[in-house]
Amino acid sequence: MKKIINIFIFIALSQISFGQQKEVLLIGTMHKVPKIVRHSYKPLLKRAVKYQPEAIYVETPHPNDSISWEYLKDGWSNSYKEFYSLSDSLQKHYNFDQYRFQQLLKKDFNALTPKNLQSIITSFAYLRDYANYDFYSYIQQYGIKGSSKPTRHEDGDLTAKLALQLNIKKLQSMDDQQTNKEYHQAWQNCAKDGGENGDNEINRKLNKKHYNKAIVPALFGRLGFYVNKRKSLKRLDQLASFSYVKNQTESCLEGLNFWNRRNHNMAQNIGSQIVENSATRSVVIVGAAHIYRIEKELKANFPEITVLLLNDL
């Protein structure tokens, strides 16, 4: 009898342990897609909704990542520059009400008045939370059903619509752009080297191969699934990490180092937040070139988290 009781206890504990197992789905994106394939994010949205994540991680810097924001305030993105300027001004003059802000976030999306939305948007700008500033600005512009026409970008066609459909009130940031300036400088220098030693021809052929293989899937509305195939993810990583080169020049090696550092930090941002929060299923929406290394980093450093790719579902 005691043996039978122990078996039941073991089964119960196993079920509890299994229930607490956390997993993350990595979805690689194409960022902004051409008009001819403007519906490319629709099937990815359908697949993501079916997965039913409880948390969404996106490719924007964390509000407290002062090093990334120090670069971005004068960096490559006009949107980030405008946002930083607004945030900087609000932090000096805005009277932020934490309690009211939290109460507004508890409201259903359809219960938010225009005044409520503006208050939330201003608060997220004050907090330097670009991901949610952008998300609620999308709601303000298109309503809770989202844009009837494709925005052609992951932020609108995938992230925002996924959050709205699953009633997820707050997005999680996971990007790291602390060395992005140095990475792009190394990229330019590596390309200059490649023009002299022939490696740019390898780059051209690899890009052409990726483009040609995408044509048929794109025509049938499956560009997103093609991009998320393991072979595609590996090819995109080769291009972004300069690992295709035959001549490892100092610039190309520097670029690889900065690429590895960024993806390592992104994976740390994702994994640490997943471990700390209560969500058992999370989704990461990030440029497809990052998936290959983020997957490896998560599996190596967070073995307690099950890592899935889109085409694994």
TrEMBL record:
Entry-linked Pfam families: DUF5694
InterPro entries: DUF5694
Protein name: DUF5694 domain-containing protein
Naturally occurring in which organism (per UniProt): Zunongwangia endophytica
Lineage: Bacteria, Pseudomonadati, Bacteroidota, Flavobacteriia, Flavobacteriales
